[in-house]
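Exercise 7 asks you to align residues with tokens for two separate proteins.
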Amino acid sequence: MKITFGELYHNNHTLQEYAQQIQLKASKYSHIIPPMTEISSVKALDARICHGMIICECPDCKGAEIVWLKELFFMCSSCFNARVHGKWRKVKIPKNLDLIIATLERRPVHLNRNWDSTETLDDLIKENEIHKDEIF
């Protein structure tokens, strides 16, 4: 099983198509999701990898959404980015994400494929080496 991100998880649908699904959910609560051109000026959110999925956590309600690597924007499907007036948030990924993914994919159990921005690539490589004889 490969590390998963938005385009794979949602069968090659675009973030815009996913935004339409969020809009349907939001409309049940009388919320309107703005177009993706309305982006908050707050600091970008760090993506992380949790159980083999690249996600971004909402800093407000702690909900999480899978990240689209082609379009690094975030809309929480729980609180609809309420603290930034419903605007989209930017998502930040590391420049060496491909190396991080390759390192994590050496772990046979997807539940052990985890990374966040406080960990370096060297940290992950060392973890792999330390646990190489264990069932990851």
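Second protein for Exercise 7:
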Amino acid sequence: MSETSSAVPCSAVLTAFRGATPVLAALPCEVDVFDALDDADVLDVQREIAAQRRLLDARAAVVAGQVARRSAPELGSAGLAQRGGFRTPEELTRVTTGSTAGDARSAVRVGVLMNETATGGRIDQNTGEHFPPTRPWLAAVSHAVSAGELSS
């Protein structure tokens, strides 16, 4: 797929993420910098980091959901995970991200929920058949994760 659902060229998506990496790397990480902060500032920095982490985790979940969609069981060996030598999308996500198995499972689970919420369900990759969302009552949770209001 060369474009995202909002018609942003793939290269622009990757460029945006690559552009964020040096910005994050430039944030201070030296103990003495934080030693110089007063208590209120330390807590404010902690809150900012939590907000940023939620936003980044939401994006990681969306990507993990894409890995799951592109590794759908009906695709068999043609699916993304199996083509890469992985049994499941969770295993591919774990290895690609260097995360724990639990974190990878969580990212995939939340990503699938977000994908289903965005598309109104699941589409069989072989037949094009549309299935309703498996957990429609969690749509509000999906939206809150996307907005960075909840952790994935």
